[in-house]
Amino acid sequence: MEIANAAYADSLFSATLTQSNGLESLANAALQRGIDAYTKQDYETAVMEFKRSVGIGRGSSFAVDAAQYLAMSYLQLDDTENAIKAYKSAFQIDPYRDDIHLQLGNLYFSQGKYEDARSEYAEAVRLNPSTINRYSLGQAYIELGRFADAEAQYGEIMRLAPQEAGGYLGMGLAYSRQGEHEEAIRQFQQALDLDGELYDAYSQMGYSYADMGDMESAQTMVDALERLEQTDLADTLSRYMYKVDPPKMLFAGSASTFAFPMGKGTPLVALNSYLMNPNAAKTLAIRPGTRAGLQLRPARIRQRSQAIEHSQRRDLGCG
Known about the structure:
Layout: H1 2-39, H2 43-56, H3 63-76, H4 80-93, H5 98-110, H6 114-127, H7 131-143, H8 147-160, H9 166-177, H10 181-194, H11 199-212, H12 215-227, H13 231-244, E1 287-288, E2 295-296
Parallel strand pairs: 1-2
Helix pairs in contact: 1-2, 1-3, 2-3, 3-4, 4-5, 5-6, 6-7, 7-8, 7-9, 8-9, 9-10, 9-11, 10-11, 11-12, 11-13, 12-13
């Protein structure tokens, strides 16, 4: 009797294992189809396949990845509500994936839900106190005005990984938001000393110079970014400078040759003797820039974007 029971148990186990393997195979196939659809930008099909993969292979080793890809697909469709639900379903499958908490935190951060972002980042740090998780938590603290907590996170990064630039960049951001621009600039410079390709440090240093009213130094950061072919960062910084210190149409200094007092009907020859020549032409350009007469540097116009700062977060030098 015992032998028969044992044989029955073995056969039941074997059948269950076979069924489990079959379901995992189906789930994996759906996952691969979803990835193919995603790469082809067919996000609706990707959603369908990833949902199928999660449903069939919930206990499989790759179910949490399928849920993560499902969230990414929803984001491509601008469906943040379902993206959040997909991330939360990933936690139910594997509650120890700190990277999922980080991604959900990033989503909340992009929506301006900084307390929700802080909660997710804090859980990510609890599960894995890596430098990138600590950096992200510090960013949420900055947005919540909890500067001491932010500095504690960046200080810990600097203590544990003094060779990484991210801690100094984050500390500089915290000082900058508190109006301590000189100290912020020192931190940004230390970040650049560790990682000369941390381009956000150049732009953040430029913002601090601009906020201090030192437009000449801010312009050197614009020039540096342009030399490094970081045109987007240079453009954003230059436009921010314009916002902080918009160029003014000033009267020329005593050295100027432009005839401001001359009114309507003034002969062109009065503007420049060169125009006495037949078919002559002269371009008169009033350039905005420094306060010395009309020699102001051109500034591009676009508002500074905090995301970066959360973009900042892609190439921090943090592991």
